[in-house]
Amino acid sequence: MRHPGLQRVLFDEAAIAARLDEMAAGITAFYDGKPLTVLAILNGSLIFAADLLRRLPIPLRFESLGAASYRGAVSGGTVTFKGGLPPLAGRHALILDDILDTGCTLHAVRRKVLAEGGPLSVRTAVLLRKRKTRIEPFHAEYAGFEIDDEFVVGYGLDYDGRYRNLPVIGVLDPARRGGG
Ligand code: 5GP
Ligand code: MG
Q1: Which of 25, 80, 103, 106 has a beta carbon 3.0–4.6 Å from 134's, enabling a disulfide?
Q2: pLDDT tens, position by position, 45-65
Q3: Ligand 1 atom index nearest CA of 41
């Protein structure tokens, strides 16, 4: 199937599903028997979170936090939050985000979760991790796919609010940037 706006597809639905199965197995093994709260960073991780959660057959609570650090295709170092944190005392927190790029967002979220939430532990799962030198070095315990430093969209990832609904992940056609 052709996807308007994509220069090329990196991961199709079958590849994403297979990788989520593997990630979910590791996450399930680690959190089995522990009080877990999954904290999704919205909007980008919406679809990743929905598909991953359904693969975790363990008791858990789901919460979300709005965070933004991006203007169009250029990353900004300032992270803004929408909404507060849920109570995390006595619980293990698993942060979900769509992509680890400069590291600014996850660094800020993790710091906020540790400072304000006081959880028993914090881990992070990202669907995508870019191969690059980060502004804020950040280790994600779970990462779906390593990608080159290109701007990708689909499966929750947007360009100026568009393309989140593509079922695949791909590289945005450069001609679409600034228009389309
Ligand atoms: P960071 O703070 O690590 O630079 O970036 C985190 C956020 O920037 C991600 O949650 C995502 O919303 C956005 N982002 C970074 N790289 C990309 C990309 O290649 N495509 C899209 N659509 N968003 C990106
Ligand atoms: Mg985003």
Answers
A1: 103
A2: 999 999 999 999 999 999 999
A3: 10
